């Protein structure tokens, strides 16, 4: 059965107070193809308790009550006795809140002054118990379920005297674990932990003895409606609350209570600790696989490099990390997801049965293929040709198709796949679905087809949307954006930064957006870009409703079109103080609470009051110190975006393999100094090369049921022939597992076959045997760089070096970019071990090197040498920014340069305007005319000539 889905419980953090750290030895990839043992800090301990837990609620109430500070009009303190304290707590246990007026009444005092928070908002009650009491109101037989009595026992704690360092031992009372058997806790726990209605009903009957007729008569509905997961999690574990509660009950304040049980009172270190903490000069980069998430590691390492550079240059005392808001799904959302999972599992079973009926074994990929085929209406989604069940299952003429090609967006999820015939799949190539359909001129029938499928609810809305995407519609930072939005990554970032930065604090995305607009930064980028887009013909005149004047607007503008929107947000975050965040958050949560019922006049008044408070707060926030719009605009106009060019072609690594010795033992051999190509080796399929009957042949591993080419192993070849015969003669079901041994222990899943496809010729070796011969390959067709030379006749010539050629050069110790053709040629000819294939690609020795271009290198286009020199001298960044381009791609006589502020490469048409989105250079004379000059923009955005 599908486990009921719980919102994001796996993301729940450890209790700050009870968590422990231990260094464990773990095996890790050493980045060179081997394994190594490394020490890794592992944190463990109890997780924080849900905010809705009755234990948490009680603790929170005591904290708040102990925190009340009251003064009489004459300025003398009005202490609250233990007895009064108990009364207040009892009141809060059974009502949603206690207003300041009610508090004064309860204390029998008319003229009291309290802190702002207490006097304005009052105190919040036990919302869990109150909600349950409301549900059980008419069922007096269940009122005992609202009871919770806590037992205590004595525990010894070690206390360290902060001044003397002396350790003393003390006995304190702590709540025993028996609270989990208390009726209120059990009731809450059932509602909190069980997602499914029927399971919840069963638990209420069997565990709490509720009557079926009561539940079915409406009580279950009421209980089920309570969502105890949504409020999220507190900052401490139940274990810690058990220690804290008895101290709070004695009237100790929060920090005294923490100290009493041997903890420091707050997560935030004391100011002394902050100033005395020893900081690392340089924050170390994350090791490969340290977080087990390569993309997250990559993003965080970019951050570490940047912060280290900033630190070295300017010194950095404080870093603020913008936190994503916590993901809180409502019960409805969680249920929908659980339902979908369950539906999917059931669908899987159904489809598996159908496939079995056809005499085939239902592998995972076959099931998926079948579902895509059914979903697409048993036809090729692109040309509409119908596909038979048999064709689908045999894999002869139906292929699983990526709607957005892998080369554009690596998304291997079900949502990005559909069913297509072999021909369409082949011709579509690296285009999105709609691009292909448009080129084929089949848009009308295609649109009808996918619209029908959507109407019949066969395909999802999001898939339908993808099917209508052109390349430019794809969000350019799709994956990265999703990752950035998780709290996980911001928490990691904070922990990493703390190693080298004195103060690391958090800010919040929602607050940034609010302040950005309040401070008037929202329009800066549009204003900076307006003239540029206007010159490209991408503006329109729009008039606001009821206004006669028209305004010039960039068509389809979004701040995400300009990389610098991150810089503006960073400036907002830098000016944000913790107190703004607190005030905004507090008002928002109060606002949300009172906003529910609008029918009565009182509520309307209340809302008007709150709206008023909002505008007061906004006025206050607008007056907080921040940079003027002019300052921000000027600084932003000087920003140069830096890219990271020059991925290394190869690194030295190790290769580990098993070998049989002469006496038949198997030994592990380690081969050092192996060249491992780096770069875009995304192609997953690995090829190998073996020597067969005196000639080298390329082999590849295929799944058993999708073999292509001759099987390499003769014994297996025989076995498979036999197996296939049994299938044809119906002795065996198609797709039945094949075993190597009679005991049926070793299943054959994939088989190595000889490959005949010519595309393999383009494969790049990534593993070499002990004699340095390549044994494993991957495919890659990318160009590594372009080099330009001048012939003795003064003519410009290009030399395109593919990734494959670059690896070859690295192997023979030849420089990848040849800047001195004569020297290289002389050395190479002396050696005599360089194969013809490498020699052939070297530039003639009488050529003179002019320049080289590699993707992501930066160039200045369209400035004369003097203009460029002058701009660099006076640090004219605004001017330089208008001419700065990035090498996007190079192939023979076709060089693309993309404007450095562009976040998208989708537009490959519009090169007009004062500052075009991109330059495309298609001849060497054009290249010379534009005076393209290579520059370097470092991590901090400083530019220099290369
Ligand atoms: Zn087709």
Strand content: 15-25%
Which word captures the global form?
A: globular
**What's the total helix number?**
34
Helical residues, percent: 25-40%
Bound molecules: zinc ion
Q: How many distinct beta strands?
A: 32
State the end-to-end CA separation: 63 Å
Task: Look at the structure and give the mean pLDDT.
Answer: 80
Give the topology.
Layout: E1 20-29, E2 35-44, H1 54-66, E3 70-71, H2 82-94, E4 97-98, H3 100-106, E5 113-114, H4 116-121, E6 123-124, H5 127-136, E7 152-160, E8 167-175, H6 183-193, H7 197-208, H8 212-225, H9 238-249, H10 254-260, H11 271-276, H12 294-314, E9 318-323, H13 331-357, H14 364-375, H15 389-394, E10 398-402, E11 417-421, H16 422-428, H17 433-440, H18 443-455, H19 461-467, H20 478-484, H21 487-497, E12 503-508, H22 509-518, H23 524-535, E13 539-543, E14 550-554, H24 565-575, H25 578-594, H26 601-622, H27 629-637, E15 650-660, E16 666-677, E17 687-692, E18 695-703, H28 714-728, E19 738-739, E20 747-748, E21 750-754, E22 763-768, E23 774-779, E24 783-790, E25 796-802, H29 803-811, H30 821-831, H31 836-839, E26 848-853, E27 858-860, H32 865-873, H33 877-881, E28 884-891, E29 894-899, E30 918-921, H34 924-929, E31 933-937, E32 943-945
Parallel strand pairs: 9-12
Antiparallel strand pairs: 1-2, 3-5, 4-6, 7-8, 10-11, 13-14, 15-16, 17-18, 17-23, 18-21, 19-20, 22-23, 24-25, 24-26, 27-28, 27-31, 28-29, 29-30, 31-32
Bound molecules: zinc ion (ZN).
